[in-house]
Amino acid sequence: MAKKDVALIEGMGSNPENHLVQKSRPLFALWRSDLTLSEFKILDVYLSRINSHEPERRVVRFEKAELEKLLGVVKINISELRERMKHLLGNVVEVPVPEDDETCIFRLITLFTMVVCSRDENDTWQISLECSQKAMRYFFNIENLGYLRYKLRCVIGLTSRYSYVMFLYLESNRIRKSWEVDIAELKQVLNCEAEASYKQFKVFNDKILKRCHKELTEKTECQYSYETVKKGRRVAAIRFTLETLPPLDVEDPDQYTIDNFNAENDPLAFLAAALSPSGDGDSEFTKEQMQEIFTILVTIPDDKLPLCREDGIEFRRYHYLAEKYALMNRVHAQKPIKNRYAYFLKMVKSDTATT
Predict the structure, then answer these.
(1) DSSP state of 9
(2) CA–centroid distance for 320 within its chain
């Protein structure tokens, strides 16, 4: 990429589908938005092209043929392209609000602020896409927000919005390897709880769970199994089990990824993001409390830290804290914890080598 292109990133490499999508957790929370499957895919293409540490270069350009492939159409005309892009730009989404912000009831933004369609010197249609100013915090420098990473090719071929959301849900829980989720909660994730016929588990299983499993295991690297958990005769929950994947590799040397980020430059700020109530990067603990947690964290043996796709001890410590924090929140939901910091500190100390 030429340095003079300070505000434009073209399609990189010979096969853009080999790029990694690096998506902040607040953007993952858009599963309940009105974004269509095609718009989710456009968002992923955008995320796979940007340098997440260069917010001044937030315009991404891709060819019309790429868009047609994303939309699953042979050819798209100008009027249809214009309407689709109007919908993408006009789609207002809700992003998480920090739990400690008592003044904010909800937060709405638009993801993109500009689309330009033009022809190059070879008469090839080019579409340039630019994210909005307010959305930049969810696109750039996202280490402190927590994030998901997956190969773009895993989602390009999906034909069901349910499969797409299921893929993100499974990948976001990969650190757990095996877990149970209540049927009602799973239907909320997939945004299908309003469908009356899905109250019958057999219908929900046949039309959603089985179809998602078939498409994901055939088209993506997300290999998993699921089984029912019953209470009496009623199916109350689903147990998912994910197969272990090797570390993600960057197949295109031109792509700048989060792997280039050195978490050790600011370990406290990086690790504090794992303890964020709403996933927006603002920890509920103070800097002094984080320092005490850190002094204990570094004494925990490596074999008690979760394995994850990101290389480096700081990433493993980040996911360890996120896992413990999620566990504390589940306990708190059942019975309020009076002193959350003391409780969390005790959880971490229980894994130290000296106990």
Answers:
(1) B
(2) 18
Q: Is residue 176 exposed (0-12), middle (13-18) or buried (19+ Cβ within 10 Å)? A: middle
Strand pairing class (112-119; 224-231): unpaired
* pLDDT tens, residue by residue, 145-196: 777 888 888 888 899 999 999 999 998 887 778 889 999 999 988 989 889 9
Q: Radius of gyration of the chain from Cα atoms?
A: 21
Burial (CB count within 10 angstroms: exposed 0-12, middle 13-18, buried 19+), residue 107: middle
Structure tokens at 71: 């939309």
For 259, the 3-state DSSP assignment is helix
d(CA 268, CA 264): 9
pLDDT tens digits, one per residue of 41-77: 889 989 988 887 788 888 988 888 888 877 777 888 8
Calpha distance 107→42 (Å, rounded): 22
Query: What is the DSSP secondary structure assignment for residue 297, as one 8-state letter?
Result: H
CA 263 remoteness from chain centre: 19
Q: 276's torsion region: left (phi>0), alpha (psi -120 to 50) or beta?
A: beta
C-alpha distances in Å from residue 180, one per residue of 68, 171, 194: 38, 15, 22
Rounded to the nearest 10 degrees, the angle between the axes of helix 37-49 and helix 78-90 is 80
Q: What pLDDT is stored for residue 226 in this prediction?
A: 96
> Which H/E stretch holds residue 178?
strand 178-182
What is the dihedral sign for C-alpha 39, 49, 106, 283?
Answer: positive
Q: What is 55-123 written as a DSSP string?
A: TT--EEEEEHHHHHHHHT-S---HHHHHHHHHHHHH-EEEE---TT-TT-S-EEEESEEEEEEEE-TTS
CB 155 within 8 A of CB 169: no
- Is the distance from CB of 46 to CB of 136 less than 8 angstroms? no
Block residue for tokens 């394995």: 307
- DSSP H helices, 113-160, are 136-139, 153-156
Per DSSP bridges, beta strands 107-110 and 92-95 are antiparallel
| pTM, 2 dp | 0.69
* Of the candidate ranges 113-127, 157-171, 197-211, 229-243, the one whose mean pLDDT is the lowest: 113-127
The single-letter code of the amino acid at 182 is: D
